[in-house]
Amino acid sequence: MFEKVVLATDLTPAWEEIVACAAEFKTLGAREFILAHVITVKFLGGMEAALKAEAEPKLAAQKQQLEAQGFRVQVELVSGLPAFALNEVARRHEAHLLVVGPQKTSRWQERLLGSVTSAVLHHAQFPLLLLKARITEDQPEGSCRLKAKELLRHVLLPTDFSDIADRAAMVLEHLASRGLARVTVVNALDVPGGEAYPPGFQEMAVAQAQSQLAAWEERLRQAGIPQVDTVFDPGRPLPAVLKLLEKEDISLIVMGTQGKGFVREIFLGSVAHNVARLAPCPVLLLPPAKR
C-alpha cells in the first residue's frame, strides 16, 4: 500500500545506512522512491549553488544504490523549509509515504528528535515513517547493518478506538499479507477516578474498553495476522506505551497523530509526539485523512 515513497535524505552517514537497507521497505509494498534532499540555506548569496553542487554526487550515488536493489528512483533537490518542502515533493509525486530519520551526524543512536525532524512530523500531510535504530557494528559497511530490520516482526498498535486509530488498524490489515507476524494492541483508559464521574462510570468504561479490545483482536486475526495480543492499561497512554517498549521487543509502532483524548494539539497529538521522541524503534504515524 506504500508503493511510492519519499526518502528525505540529509546525506549524512545515517542515511548511508538507511539506503543500504532499502530492501526492507519492500515489506511495506515500496516499488518506487523519490530521493529528496532539502537545502535549508536559501537566501545567502552563492551558498545555495555551492550546497547543490556538493549534494548532487552524493544523491547520484544513493540513487544508484537504490536502483541496484530493484527500485525505480527519482531525485528531488529542492530549497526551502523541510517541513513544507517535503510535503510539496510528496504531493507533486502523489507519494504514499514519507520517510525521515533522526538528526544525528555521528553515531546514529540519538533517541530524541532534532528540530528539523520534529518540524516535519508536526506538519506532515502524508503517512510518515520515522526511522530510529542503531547499527550492527559486526557487519561490513555497504551491507544492511540497521537493527531496525524486519519491520513487520512485532508491531505495537496503540489505540483509543478513534477514527484515526481505526485507520492505523486498517493499515495493519493491509500489511497482513506482507508478512506481518505479530501485533500487540494497547489501550490506556485514562479516566480519572474519584468524584470526577458518576458512580460506576469507571467500571463501565473499563468493561467497554476490554470489549473493544477483544473485537479488535478478532478483527486483526481475521485479517490473517498469526499472533495478536491485547493489553489493557488503566493509566495514561504514554506511560502504557513506554512500559510495553521496555518489556517487549517491538520492531515498529503504528499509530495516528491525533486521537480523541482530553487534549488535542493543533498539528500533532501530544501522545504521538512523545512516542515519536522516546521510542527506540521506528514509528509509522498516520495523519487524519483530511490533512
UniProtKB/TrEMBL annotation:
Domain of life, per lineage: Bacteria
Pfam families: Usp (PF00582)
Domain annotation UspA: ranges: 1-132, 153-286
Entries under InterPro entries matching the protein: Rossmann-like_a/b/a_fold (IPR014729), Universal_stress_UspA (IPR006015), UspA (IPR006016)
Gene3D superfamilies: HUPs
Family: Belongs to the universal stress protein A family.
Protein name, per record: Universal stress protein
Organism: Desulfobacca acetoxidans
